[in-house]
């Protein structure tokens, strides 16, 4: 599967879609596939501060519990409340309805530390 070209990726399998000074964060289709059926997502509260590559939550599947790592630093502006009642959305549509957080970016220069789609696809090949 080819990763969407409009996103940036962390080596920990999170993606970020930037629009101005805001960004949406999620997990990749590769990560969702490796996890299996997602049954619970633990996300930080609105207003929480994220640091690049630091743990911000957890995702639980029928196979395992995994930490979520922030690909960028910033302040949480919104969280995907749909995932409370339908965590499987992460498996069904990881790059769309399965998003995790919307963040106000605190340092756009951090994006340079992330992979582009080709780099991420090479990492997961």
Molecular structure report:
The protein has 125 residues and is an alpha+beta fold. The protein has one domain: OB fold (Dihydrolipoamide Acetyltransferase, E2P). 18% of the residues lie in helices and 35% in strands. The protein has four helices and nine strands. The strands form two sheets. A six-stranded antiparallel β-sheet has the order 1-2-3-9-8-5. It has a three-stranded antiparallel β-sheet with strand order 4-6-7. Strand 6 and strand 7 (65-69) form a beta hairpin. It is globular, with a radius of gyration of 13 Å.
Short description:
This protein is an alpha+beta fold.
Largest sheet features: 6 strands, antiparallel
The number of strands is 9
> How would you write the strand order of the largest sheet?
1-2-3-9-8-5
How many separate domains? Answer: 1
Low-confidence stretches: none
Structural class: alpha+beta
- Give the SSE order as H and E letters: EEEHEEEEEHHEH
Report the end-to-end length measured between terminal Cα atoms: 9 Å
In CATH, the architecture is Beta Barrel
CATH topology name:
OB fold (Dihydrolipoamide Acetyltransferase, E2P)
Total number of helices: 4
Q: What is the name of the CATH superfamily? A: RNA polymerase II/Efflux pump adaptor protein, barrel-sandwich hybrid domain
Helix share of residues? 10-25%
Level-1 CATH class name:
Mainly Beta
Share of residues in strands: 35-45%
Q: What does the overall shape look like?
A: globular
User: What is the mean predicted local confidence, pLDDT?
Assistant: 96
Q: Evaluate the radius of gyration.
A: 13 Å
């Amino acid at each position: 599967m080819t990763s969407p070209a409009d996103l940036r990726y962390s080596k920990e399998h999170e993606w970020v879609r930037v629009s101005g000074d805001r960004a949406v964060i999620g997990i990749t289709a590769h990560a969702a596939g490796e996890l299996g059926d997602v049954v619970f997502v633990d996300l930080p509260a609105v207003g929480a501060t994220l640091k690049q590559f630091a743990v911000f939550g957890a995702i639980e599947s029928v196979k395992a519990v995994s930490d979520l790592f922030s690909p960028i630093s910033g302040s949480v502006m919104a969280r995907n409340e749909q995932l409370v009642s339908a965590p499987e959305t992460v498996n069904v549509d990881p790059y769309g309805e399965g998003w995790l957080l919307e963040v106000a970016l605190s340092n756009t220069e951090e994006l340079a530390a992330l992979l582009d789609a080709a780099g991420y696809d090479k990492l997961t090949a």
